[in-house]
Amino acid sequence: MSRKIPTVCTRYLASTLLLALLGCATPTPPETQTSPTPRSTPATTRYERVEIQVNRQAGQCHVQLTGQLDEYTARSLRQTMNELASQDCRSKRVVIALQGGQVGSALTVGAIIKNRAFDTQVQAGTSCLTPCLLVFVAGRERIMLPSVPPTRLGFSQIPPDADFGRGICETELNAAQAQTLTRYLRAMLPLPVANTVMKKLATATCNNTEYLNPAEALALGLATTVR
After folding, report:
1. What's the CA dihedral at 214, 80, 114, 171 to 10 degrees?
2. Residues 90-107: what's their mean pLDDT?
3. Which of 22-26, 64-68, 84-88, 214-218 has the lowest mean pLDDT?
4. CATH number of this structure's domain 2-11+45-156+209-226
């Protein structure tokens, strides 16, 4: 049986949960400076807010995230997982069908998944770009399924929002942002894999997205299971 959980309109900051997960000092706030004149601004796409669906059949505690990550997503997911904590869950999984969204929200959602030891799975036949990918890496097991159209992970440009990115075609992170993202990836992945992912994210542009199919993601260490 599936049910939809509405999002809760309360702002939820990524840094609080990340500090508990990573055990690090409060990060330095992003530097305040005048943004450079945009050289090439990617087109803006509008998405629907994340919808959360829960499947509790046959011992499954499967949560599906569909839509765009925003500041309300983490609060709603946390509430949903708190409700599932009392269930007899033989399989705990977050199925991801995310079209994009805020990086800060992705880090908070990933920390929630990590702390509760859920697996993650990219929805078959979808492309999981950077915000989605940052949620995917938080899984205890990280599952991809071969499909037509192909299921893919994509290292896309870090999208501009209040915390990450400045609205130009090239990814630009200040020292505090780069440190936060590096610490997050190292908490989720083996060190060599985390470092490789960080390099790929830092060099992505709006005109250059590198995609990995399930076999390539497994070889890199991003996926742990291909079925």
Report:
1. 70
2. 93
3. 22-26
4. 3.90.226.10
Q: What pTM was computed for the model? A: 0.77
**Spans of all domains in the chain:** 2-11+45-156+209-226
Confidence (pLDDT) at 105:
94
CA 51 to mean position of chain CA atoms: 15
| DSSP, residue by residue, 37-106 | PPSSPPPP---PBPEEEEE-GGGEEEEEEEEEE-TTHHHHHHHHHHHHTTS--SEEEEEEEEEEE-HHHH
Burial status of residue 125 (CB atoms within 10 A of its CB: 0-12, 13-18, 19 or more)? middle
